[in-house]
Inverse folding.
């Protein structure tokens, strides 16, 4: 059973650290195993967010998760950004540093989105080379997450999971497997999400993400604004069986409920680790409950991935 996780520990069940919960966490010190921060929210801050983070990091393990590395872009890597990321890692001492397998802009223009890549040999070589540069700068393995995607490329020659297998083996990077993203992309592109989860190299999975999404009928948007639906929990169960358990984190970034709601949601993972048959029987009929909020394409209130970058709060 693969358990290497690049030598990283299984931190247990964690939550994304968001401004709106700072006060609750400091006052109540909830029994959460660990927190994940959005790196960009703390890079230039030396005000209240960094002060709060210092307090929280004294009690909880912290992981850094970025949204701006743009590892797949054809623009040169942003050395200023990477230097700031390294400085933050030096200060925060995260257990690991992650970002996304995507590109966020080109010719210095930022799309403010996590954009998909064509999965072919040329892209693979490009991404692997850049991961090597980043790992040399950060002096640690990079952990990359599979994004939710809404388009595919005609010149892709391999599946996303085949690309990830080669990327991980050739670069030495770790993987953050977002099982909600797998489900979203599988719905949008009509592939079997279990084939994805079964295929990726399980000994390189350092972390798992869980989240809710918005099912628009013809497509799903990764909105992070609701409970995790049962089909995603089924993928989580499969991943747990294949990895023997990895650090698991719930993302909830829009319409954020009280802290206890988030905590209770991530604690549901325990039921899927125990593989109780009745849990999975319930899962068969879900997709009409939470996580399937009907929304029109023209609704401009959709959650945007980079909305996780919060305004500075001094
Ligand atoms: Fe994620």
């Amino acid at each position: 059973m693969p358990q290497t996780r690049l030598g990283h520990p299984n931190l247990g069940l964690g939550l994304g650290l968001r401004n709106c919960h700072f006060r609750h966490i400091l006052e109540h010190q909830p029994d959460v195993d660990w927190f994940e921060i959005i790196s960009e929210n703390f890079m230039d801050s030396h005000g209240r967010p960094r002060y709060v983070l210092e307090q929280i990091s004294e009690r909880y393990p912290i992981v850094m998760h970025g949204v701006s590395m743009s590892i797949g872009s054809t623009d040169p890597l942003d050395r200023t950004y990477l230097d700031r990321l390294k400085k933050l890692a030096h200060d925060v001492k995260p257990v690991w540093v992650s970002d996304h397998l995507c590109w966020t802009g080109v010719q210095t223009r930022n799309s403010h989105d996590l954009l998909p890549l064509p999965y072919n040999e040329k892209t693979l070589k490009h991404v692997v080379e850049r991961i090597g540069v980043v790992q040399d700068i950060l002096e640690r393995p990079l952990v990359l997450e599979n994004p939710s995607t809404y388009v595919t490329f005609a010149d892709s020659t391999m599946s996303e999971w085949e690309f990830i297998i080669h990327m991980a083996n050739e670069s030495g990077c770790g993987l953050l497997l977002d099982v909600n993203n797998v489900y979203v992309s599988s719905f949008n592109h009509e592939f079997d999400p279990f084939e994805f989860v079964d295929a990726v190299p399980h000994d390189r999975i350092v972390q798992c993400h869980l989240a809710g999404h918005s099912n628009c009928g013809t497509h799903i948007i990764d909105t992070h604004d609701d409970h995790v639906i049962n089909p995603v929990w089924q993928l989580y169960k499969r991943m747990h069986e294949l990895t023997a358990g990895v650090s698991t984190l719930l993302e909830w970034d829009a319409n954020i409920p009280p802290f206890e709601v988030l905590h209770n949601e991530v604690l549901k993972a325990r039921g899927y680790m125990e593989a109780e048959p009745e849990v999975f029987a319930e899962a068969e009929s879900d997709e009409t409950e939470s996580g399937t909020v009907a929304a029109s394409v023209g609704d401009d209130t959709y959650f945007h991935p980079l909305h996780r970058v919060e305004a500075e709060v001094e």
User: Anything to note?
Assistant: The CA atoms of residues 13 and 270 lie 9 Å apart. The chain has one domain: 5-297. The first strand starts at residue 13 and ends at 16. The mean pLDDT is 88.
